[in-house]
Design a protein that fits this description.
By secondary structure, the protein is mainly α. It has one domain. It contains four helices and no strands. The protein starts with a helix and ends with a helix.
């Protein structure tokens, strides 16, 4: 698992975690990796709620898989 130093550097935006590291962090936190990505995206883009973002993602996924 990641060291405290590594996690701190990710929190301070000094390092960018790989998808593997996001998965490892999510496992330790007992959340889905997309939860971490959603929270990070909402923070960076100053979104008040994840509902709007998740609605957009659901819509885009639906469009991708429509016959």
């Amino acid at each position: 698992m990641s060291s405290r130093t590594y996690v701190s550097s990710v929190e301070r935006a000094v390092r960018n975690p790989t998808l593997t590291k996001i998965d490892e962090l999510a496992t330790v936190l007992k959340v889905h990796p997309l939860t971490l990505v959603t929270l990070a995206y909402c923070d960076v883009n100053n979104l008040d709620s994840s509902k709007e973002l998740l609605g957009l993602v659901a819509s885009e996924l639906g469009a991708l898989f429509t016959d």
